[in-house]
Amino acid sequence: MKSEKINHEPPILLVIAVALAVALAVGAVFSRFGGFGTGKCADKTSFQTYAKAINEIEIPESAEIIALGEATHGNAEFQKLKLDIFKVMAEKYGIRAFCLEADYGCCEAANRYIHGGEGTAQEAAAATGFAIYRTQEMAELLSWMRTWNETAKEGDDLRFYGFDMQRIEYNYEYLLEAAEQAGLDTTELKAIWDEEAREYVKDLDREKKRRVLETIQDQLAKLDEKGAEFAKILLENDSVFDLDAGSGAKTRDQMMSENVLWILDQEASYGCSRIFLSAHNGHVEQNGSYGPQSKVMGNLLADVVGEDRYYAIGTDFYKAKVNLPRRDRSRMTHTFYSYDSMAKAAKECGYDQCWLDFASIPQDSPLYGSAYKYGWMGSVGEGYSVVMNVFPMTYRVWRCPAECYDSMIFVADAHPTTISD
Question: Could you count the other beta carbons within 10 Å of the beta carbon of residue 274?
């Protein structure tokens, strides 16, 4: 009997699996060490001449909206900068409003805490709604603001605002509170809400929901403008999440810009002409866009108030170990390099952090080209893909720093945040 020929070739699926595993392993090493390199270094002598300490930051007299960007959401240094820069804004420039890329209602919960409300700083930080703010750095910011308010003279207190619209619980809670305090009929408003689930009732007709919210908004607008804003945010939430990713992103930035302008008007009613806001770099850029006719929030704000009244401070890193979410909502640390020549100069000059004002750099300086020409900069959002390990350019953006920002803060080595439970 003739013996069967034995096939010594490995199964094709095994070959593919091994090749994929090797590719991912190589990609992880590749990304961890900056891909094919970490880019050129800006002129170090010039960089040392113009770089300053964080507490030396200055803003022009004309600026009314001062925006601090963050290159990543998941690094402790960028979270801590919120407090470091706001201290300067409050103590040196008389700014009393801190505005965060978080929901209006969620930040109202934190605002009540800094005005002596119950609970802890950690609980107030958690109330802002996003995991990226459940950090010790955010708790320290709120604690500092509360301490300030404990001794502040009347009218000199600090206020905490949100200008986003991605959450609904606190917005509904405070809307109902405002409506009841105004003596409005809240029967229909209560009927659309499941108190136990802290969500709209199941299978609620969308048109009915919008009609109820619009009615309450109109009624409150005549009596309590802050109360009406809660209804406005709920309507924005309903609108933006009905869109696809691309349309939703540009609509969200448009709405956030309008909310920031509302906050600016609110502060003017308190006698304060300036506000400070914090958001991702991608939202505060002065010339950023999602495509034709779809500018980012910072670009829209600069158009409305004028470039001289909008002052943007960008950030970047040389190396960052970023705390990012997995699909199962757990989190993991990943390493990135920005490829920014000025961030590399900060690293090689020995600065942990430093601030660079682009207007201070003369045209004949070797540093001028680094600030005023296009190059790659780091930009990591609240999302992760294995592709980022293999292709570093997927987490970098091609930008002219001085076109995007008036000044920048560079962090040499950024460490991951610790998210509290």
Answer: 20
